Amino acid sequence: QAKEEGKNNFRLYDSTLNPNAEERMEIKNSLRYALDRQEFVIHYQPQIEVGSGQILGLEALIRWNHPKRGLVMPGSFISIAEETGLIVPIGEWVLRTVCAQSKAWQEAGLPPVRIAVNLSGRQFAQNQLAEHIQEILTDTGLDPTYLELEITESMAMQDKNWTTLEELRKMNITISIDDFGTHYSSLSYLKHLPVNKIKIDRSFVDGIAKDPKDEAIIMAMLLVARHLNLTILAEGVETAEQYLFLEHNQCDEIQGYFFYKPQPADHIPKILREHAPDTFITPRSNS
Ligand code: C2E
Ligand code: MG
Ligand code: MG
Ligand code: MG
Fold first, then answer.
1. What are phi and psi of 245, to 5 degrees?
2. If you measure from the C-alpha of residue 73 to the centroid of ligand 1, how many angstroms do you get, rounded to a whole number?
3. Please, which domain of life does this record's source organism belong to (predicted)?
4. pTM to 2 decimals?
5. Alpha carbon nearest to ligand 1 atom 42, residue
């Protein structure tokens, strides 16, 4: 019965968000073959400019089209891919697929937008990440200004990663800090980092209109971002109340179910044709 439901039901797989030992073992085994068997797909979630409602970017989010389990969400397999090191080839596949897709959409005449790719710590730690990415950009012909890389706060804070970050910024790639505010870290490191954008974590957005403390933290983040000349995006916006609060407090961009859920690639052309601006809008930079 579960198998039947699994075919078309995303939700079911939220139940494996914390897979047990047996499930993890099973996932680990089949994950090894998933790349060769072309079981991964990318969905894209639009990022909207507050006020204009225009789509300025998309976030690429991986899904695993498992032969028996149906569509498996990244929460169920990314940590396992990190443990096993499989995240390196998987991550490279994501980058290549996204750059090729982005170039193809542009060549089809769609308004160009930035596409953001999530990087894992393990990927960042590999040697010559910048060279690898340059190779992918050259192969696919994508202009680097259309590529954005999302890193976590903990990745951003490690000084061993800073040279790579500098290299990527010099290549004109946009760098954003994902899930901002969820790690115990000081704001002051923001002033040294070559980043363009911060993404307020969904857990704070959840508290809008419910918890004045979350609202206070969001307002502080918005203020810091504005003064450091960083673009700021709020993740996980689900309600009109949350949207209005963010608009009122001059958040730049939002991403969330209130506008769009992550979409399969073939839904994107129509969405971009109807909602993306004709000219590309360059992200801010504090460096
Ligand atoms: P993330 O990068 O913070 O991505 C945002 C997550 O929030 C996505 O979950 C997205 O579907 C979900 N989301 C967006 N809007 C809403 C909303 O309004 N409400 C709620 N409840 N959720 C919303 P998803 O796709 O399951 O991805 C989970 C995490 O997996 C991502 O979090 C990211 O850390 C990781 N991930 C996804 N794709 C990749 C990838 O290609 N490589 C790596 N290394 N990690 C990835
Ligand atoms: Mg992300
Ligand atoms: Mg996030
Ligand atoms: Mg995340």
1. -60, -45
2. 9
3. Bacteria
4. 0.93
5. 118
